[in-house]
């Protein structure tokens, strides 16, 4: 037959290559991708909760639940009324106890001295950051007291502050009468707080140095170019730049003052003279360990917890307001 009359050959379409089939497969793949996308988004949404769940469970089991039990126990009685509900009797007894009122007054003293306890490591960290001569040596020396036991620190300062100790000997050599540093009710608490600040400011120093690592050095250079003095640099550049670090140090220092001075108090003054160095922490130990009054101690612990929460929140609020004003 002539070539011109030949019919064009038609090749059969391969299986699975037809138009409708191809469209159905694409739709199925798109659906699979959408389902995987939704599943991935759901997993990402719940991942943070899954990661923090073990820590939350530990906090609830070891912190929150005992705290609730302690608060509940504070409304029960001691002695012949052990386990019986007594309402607010324990709290009334606390506020009628002169020793507990003295302990609360000393808490107020600690709050007043708190800015000093924060300013000391802050200034020392500033000098180290500005690389004063010997800053590497000072960094180690300043941190050294933080590794000492409170018992050792208390024993050392008992010798230094004794009535016939080296400090009074130095004062006598310049014609100053000796002072009973740990036996005078008007002086003893200040001495214990001063020793506590000396022994613990190394940790706050480390926190401040970590905060300085986030400070923009260009701001300091600009302040120097503008001729700002060191106090101006500290107040207008460093303090605003470290506002969050300062808030953290304020809160942790306050907690340390209220809950970590037992060792020093026990070794240096044992709450004396005349109960002038009592703090809630020491009062709680006396009631629980010596007087065998756990319910009253629980009530004192609850009040101490409320004080820390209230004072800590007030400090943060005041610092935030000061930061906005700057």
UniProtKB/TrEMBL annotation:
- Gene3D superfamilies, from UniProt? MetI-like (1.10.3720.10)
User: Looking at the record's lineage, which domain of life comes first?
Assistant: Bacteria
Q: What is its main location?
A: membrane
Q: Which InterPro entries match?
A: MetI-like, MetI-like_sf, UgpAE/MalFG_permease
Where in this chain does the record put each ABC transmembrane type-1 domain? 99-315
Q: Which Pfam families match?
A: BPD_transp_1
Ranges of biased composition (kind: Low complexity): 12-24
* Keywords of this entry: Cell membrane, Membrane, Transmembrane, Transmembrane helix, Transport
How does the protein's chain sit in the membrane according to the entry? Answer: Multi-pass membrane protein
The entry's localization annotation reads:
Cell membrane
Q: Which family does it belong to?
A: Belongs to the binding-protein-dependent transport system permease family.
Q: Which protein, by its recorded name, is this? A: Sugar ABC transporter permease
